[in-house]
Amino acid sequence: MSLRFIKTLIKLKLSHMMVFRLSFFGAFWVDGTLFFVQLLMFNTIYSQVDSIGGWSKGEMIIFIGTFSLINALNMVIFFFGINDLPSKIRYGTLDHYLTKPISPLLRLTFEHVNPGSIPLVLVSIGIIIYGMNISKVEITLFNGLGYTFLVILMTLLWYDVELILRCIPFFVLSATNISRAEELLELCMKVPGVLFKGIFKALFYFVLPYGIMATIPTQFIMKTVTPLGILYSIGVVLFFTVLTFYLWKMGLRHYKSASS
């Protein structure tokens, strides 16, 4: 039932986008341009150094490709669905989701898929392969499947963190600076976690785990992550997923609908 509903949402979204073909193909152009600007920026930063935090240039390229891939998956699948949740809470339009015979969170998550970011997924994969080639990493079935699993896991973790931040308006009167704060926090995902020390490592590995999202998959592909590190990552994702659904359910109980 849920899979059929998700498929229907995606078909409706694609049909709507193709009615306005300029908007559809424009999304490819805009997201692709942003990706190359971002890539150029990081190439400029790292072109004059051989190592950062003990990471070689190849490792850094894999890291850049990894966070770009996770970001692209986020943009393709769920970002535009949950991004305006705070405004739906504030203005009572969440009522339209709660009165339908389907999970409101399921609908919010998948109703605004964005095919315009699919090229970013493909280019990110190309960057990762390029980094592996520089680092002389052999692509095998094991490291391919393991890396894919960790990327999916970290994409889920990012979804959890994004949704937790967007549940804050359930409990406070004003949360207008959520997006601005999130933009600053997400910069930490673009810094290798191995560079964080002391309180910053505790913050971005445990409290707001942006530091592990692209770092752990990169370490796996380079065979520098420990089994404990992988188990820790799985544990963090499980914890944040449970916390996310708990806060979502609690938030719905606090929600003041437009009709109340």
Order of strands, widest sheet? 1-2
What is the count of helical runs? 14
The main β sheet shows up as: 2 strands, antiparallel
Any idea how many domains? 1
Helix content: over 70%
- End-to-end Cα distance: 31 Å
Number of strands: 2
Task: Explain how this protein is built.
This protein is mainly alpha-helical. Helix content is 72%, strand content 2%. A two-stranded antiparallel sheet has the order 1-2. A hairpin with a 2-residue loop joins strand 1 and strand 2. Helix 3 packs across helix 13. About 2% of the residues have low confidence.
Overview in brief:
By secondary structure, the chain is mostly helical. The chain has helices at 2-19, 21-46, 57-77, 79-82, 85-91, 95-98, 104-110, 118-134, 141-166, 178-186, 198-207, 210-213, 215-221, 227-254; strands at residues 51-52, 55-56.
Q: How are the elements arranged and paired?
A:
Layout: H1 2-19, H2 21-46, E1 51-52, E2 55-56, H3 57-77, H4 79-82, H5 85-91, H6 95-98, H7 104-110, H8 118-134, H9 141-166, H10 178-186, H11 198-207, H12 210-213, H13 215-221, H14 227-254
Antiparallel strand pairs: 1-2
For the structure shown, list the relevant keywords:
mainly alpha; 14 helices
